[in-house]
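Incident log, structure service

09:12 report received: a user says their structure output differs between two submissions of the same chain.
09:20 pulled the input from the user's history:
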Amino acid sequence: MAQPTAAVVAVSEMAVVRALELAGNRLMSRNGRSDRGTLQRMASWDRHSFFRVTGEEADRVLADVWEAPAARGVPEELLRVLDTYVRLLLASGHSLHRSDLVQTLSRMPQQVVLPWEADVSSTASVTP
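09:34 re-ran on a clean worker, output below:
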């Protein structure tokens, strides 16, 4: 188990924040007007801390949240770990903490290499 690179931590943190933000926005419709004011004052990526979200509801609020990172080349094995981590946050109501995310990433069986960190010679012919 190796420490993740700074780039993997940064990409992971941004993907998790975006997943929690989308989930938080979807959770706004869960409650009536009485809680809406409280929820609107919270950061959208932290709204899940107001709830405990598991099972089918977690599936609903996380639908398609990993499409953008996958389309940008984030490896599938990393997305699976991040999905599990986000589901744990949703179920527990805990906020994202970088140290917890780093610990989770360090438990991966092999170090993740992002496509843009790969051997420069293999990507030299790629154009933007």
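09:41 both user submissions now match this output. Likely a transient worker issue. Closing.
09:42 reviewer note: DSSP finds seven helices and no strands in the chain. Helices lie at 6-27, 33-41, 55-61, 67-71, 76-92, 98-106, 120-123.
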